[in-house]
Specification:
Length: 467
């Protein structure tokens, strides 16, 4: 696609994902198709989280004094907080913040809930809207001021080791999640100047958008004992002494949908992985004057069979040209199209068209249609994943010098891997010279020399132009 930004705006509108005409900057309306896409995506994540986490729901408003308690945290968010100052005509004596995230809403309650070492670990999550007064250019789903689908998990542990293990567990859950969506990613440890406010360290997932810029699509933070000390979250250990807990939190947003749309989409529109597609299969009858009724009946029969099997199916029997239907469902990204016309019926055949590679095959209706559909969708899913990962990996280049990195970014964008001594001044100097951000450290082992100072490198790190 030549202009990603324009493509993205157009497809959100054409495929009826969201309406961005709502009269507040950075806030949008989910339309029925988008809402379904959001619902199926959310269900996948919920299934993964439900295995080990309990779902909860906290209030939207946070009292000013709680928000202000954790100094580093509040400093990180102070420019982004929306405030409620009045109840009707009465000025509130304590301002209330619209949560930018929920640490300061949840942790005062955690200090009431955690008592003994036998209560731990505790793992919670909630799916809510959060508000951030973003000053950078807003974009639907990518940088919004109301994050409508904030999936935040918060865990409490009795040891540093427990929190450390939870970080790995969270990374593994998110990997599974992105793999189902066929979204490629790199995982890095963010540089100290870019970690979550109040965290010991931050691990992040980044994917690449079609314009070669990376998008941070998920983060996992090890909070250590910082918030525990601020909010007095303690437990009684087996010796009867009181200790501060260790915590982690991790979250995903509407960006997950933005990346599923952008990574797989093409000039014809959306191309959605079957697990999240609002419709997985569309059946289009090809009707001429003769034989119309038989074709319709056969289509309906197949529709019923597929629906009974649990597929999300659309039987498109509208009285419009088949070509118009094809265009529409391709644009909406339906993974599999089944066409049946009178000639197909005579031969007891159907035509399958896969949206990922637009390949058509004749499928015999003497065979079990359910397994033919399952086979096609499973081939499509694995192909979508392979194609996306291959494209992604081809856009990761190694740079030996700062000049190399700058040339590569200017000509091809993408992700640059480089050797870094780990020193903050060096890191900032690299960012300034290449004029992009350091995503973070990918590996702790590195044999080469730092591309800025020439000293022995400590890490393999990544650079990219970011959203
Ligand atoms: C936390 N606390 O808050 P995080 N628009 C769309 N997506 C966004 C935006 C935005 N304006 N800002 C951030 N994100 C922790 C973890 C509870 C959960 C997305 O972490 O501030 C980014 O993908 O890093 C980010 O990785 C994720 O929300 C979590 O936000």
């Amino acid at each position: 696609m030549t202009d990603f930004s324009e493509w993205f705006h157009n497809i959100l509108e054409e495929a009826e994902i969201i309406d961005s005409r709502y009269p507040i900057k950075g806030m949008h309306v989910w339309l029925p198709q988008g809402f379904k896409l959001r619902k199926h995506t959310l269900n996948i994540l919920k299934n993964l989280l439900d295995k080990e986490h309990e779902e909860v729901l906290f209030p939207l408003l946070v009292p000013e004094d709680e928000l202000a308690k954790e100094a580093i945290h509040v400093k990180g968010f102070e420019e982004e907080v929306y405030w409620v100052t009045h109840g009707g005509l009465t000025e509130l004596n304590k301002k209330l913040a619209l949560r930018p995230t929920s640490e300061t809403a949840m942790y005062p309650m955690f200090s009431l809930w955690v008592r003994s070492h036998t209560d731990l670990p505790m793992k919670f999550y909630q799916v809510v809207n959060t508000f951030r007064y973003e000053t950078k250019h807003t974009r639907p789903l990518i940088r919004v001021r109301e994050i409508t689908t904030f999936k935040e998990a918060h865990t409490i542990h009795k040891s540093s080791d427990g929190a450390e293990k939870q970080v790995l567990e969270a990374l593994s859950i998110y990997k599974k999640f992105f793999d189902i969506l066929a979204i490629p990613y790199v995982i890095t440890k963010r540089p100290v100047w870019d970690k979550f406010p109040g965290a010991d360290y931050t691990m992040a997932f980044d994917t690449l958008m079609p314009d070669g810029k990376t998008l941070q699509i998920g983060t996992v933070h090890n909070l250590g004992q910082t918030f525990a000390k601020t909010f007095e979250i303690t437990f009684e250990n087996s010796e009867g002494d009181h200790e501060y807990v260790y915590q982690t939190c991790y979250g995903l947003s509407d960006r997950v949908i933005a990346s599923a749309i952008s990574v797989h989409g093409d000039e014809s529109g959306l191309c959605l992985p079957p697990d999240i597609a609002p419709y997985q299969i569309v059946i289009v009858p090809i009707i001429f004057k003769k034989g119309g009724e038989e074709v319709i009946n056969k289509c309906r029969e197949i529709e019923n069979e597929l629906v009974d099997e649990g597929f999300r199916v659309k039987f498109d029997d509208r009285d419009i040209r088949a070509g118009k239907k094809f265009y529409e469902w391709e644009m909406r990204g339906v993974p599999l199209r089944i066409e049946i016309g009178p000639r197909d019926l005579e031969n007891n055949n159907a035509v399958f068209l896969r949206r990922d590679n637009m390949e058509k095959t004749n499928v015999s209706l003497n065979d079990d249609i359910i397994s033919s559909v399952k086979d096609s969708l499973s081939l499509l899913s694995s192909n979508m994943k392979d194609v996306a990962w291959e494209r992604f990996n081809n856009q990761i280049k190694k740079a030996e010098t700062v000049e190399d990195a700058r040339d590569e970014v200017e000509s091809n964008q993408g992700i640059i891997s480089f050797s870094w001594c780990g020193d903050e001044d060096c890191g900032k100097a690299i960012e300034e010279q290449v004029r992009v951000d350091i995503l973070g450290i990918q590996e702790d082992e590195e044999s080469g020399n730092c591309i800025n100072c020439g000293k022995k490198a400590k890490h393999k790190a990544l650079l990219a132009k970011t959203y």
